[in-house]
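Students often ask what a holo structure prediction actually looks like on paper. The answer is less mysterious than it sounds. You provide the chain, you provide the ligand, and the output is a string of discrete structure tokens encoding the 3D arrangement of the protein together with 5-phosphoarabinonic acid.
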Amino acid sequence: MALLKYDPSGALFDHGGTSPIELDAIAPRLESARAEVLADADLWARGVETPPEKQPLDAGFHRLPDRLLAELAEKGAESEVARLRATADRLAGDCKSVVVLGIGGSYMGARALLEACCHPYYNEVPAGVRGGRPRVYFEGNNVDNDAASGLLQLLGTRDEPWGVVVISKSGGTLETAAATRIFLRALSESAGDKLPQRFVPVTGASGKLFDLSQALGAPEVYEVPDGVGGRFSVLSAVGLLPAALMGLDIEKLLAGAKAMNDHFESAPVAENVVLQYVGVCHLLEETEECSTRVLSTWGKRLEATGLWYDQLLAESLGKQEQGALPLTIVNTRDLHSRGQQHQEGPRDKVITNVIVQSQDSEPLAIGELSLGGSDYNQDKLNELSGKTLPEVLKAAIAGTNQAYAEDNRPTADIVMDRLDEHTIGQFLQMMMLATVVEGRLIGINPYGQPGVEAYKKNMNAILRG
Ligand code: PA5
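The corresponding structure tokens follow.
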């Protein structure tokens, strides 16, 4: 795997307990967890009845990228990928802004893709810089009156056409359903009889949102495929439609994910980024009680991807009073907030750095400060004036890892040579595979989220009571 490398070579190998030998020792268990995950994907694809001990089995995400790419090659314009692109292009042509409604797995992946792959000020830059694509706003991911009102106000102040993409697999999630009503009312005022064309639902093959979409005459309704759970759905229409709307290359995204599938299936344990990641995290949790998984992203573009991963890990493995605590940080920002605790707090953390080795823009030099004919060096930065921000970042990563190593605090690195649709596709698929492998390794079914139902039940009882 050329572009994405997992390198558990930080303090980990100097750490008292875990060593490469021990990682070798769990290789057979990792092999067997991989075999089970592959068998799950086959079982799901065969469409046979899921045995009771495997239920629920939402393994449909695994080969989804392969399937969508094969269908694109075979059916061209009739394929789902081509249809998604066509819908996104149509909506982008009709609308200057699109509100994407959804929560949890129906929201976090799309946001991750926007932050990772689009302009850092995507909504603010002129449309031409966005390639003529619409601004994208996320709502329906909370019940925050001020946030929803603020967005409605913003849309109202612009005399421009806008649209709604609503994403809900069940079609009954209250946060999203309530926002759908609120935004559809406003859309009706803005779009009049064009409302059906400006409203694209992504939902299950049946359910309340499906019924509402039919009743409203939405011409295109995309399906969240059966057997793909919310937090595993980023590479279905759930993430692909918003991504295509933002002008991202969704074929490249899927190709990255497929490359990760191929790697996962064929690479030996010692070279397998998925199995290495699981092995290191699992061993450190088991032998060193490192029950907090810090995903340390360097630079701002991966924060939402980290939050997507927080959900993936927490909802998949946080069951039966087990499951590591995920924590995404963004450095160097959070070195100034959480860094103290990570350096000197409880020894309960494994820190995985996510490092992108290049940037899209020209490196900015610190340079000299010459203003109005005068030179300023009160900040004593002239000796660093030749350094660029990427060089400072590199020094910060090396310096932080060194500081952790000197105190025997375990770190490891996931390295991408660049950040684009291909590498983010690899990364998302890597983390989804790692999560289900770990579930099989520790005997926790990674699918389903029964614990989320408790609050919903109570909230509904209180509201309807
Ligand atoms: O991972 C999950 O399944 C959840 O986070 C769901 O995505 C979330 O609850 C939203 O559900 P729905 O898409 O049915 O509205």
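The chain has two domains: 5-47+267-446, 61-252.
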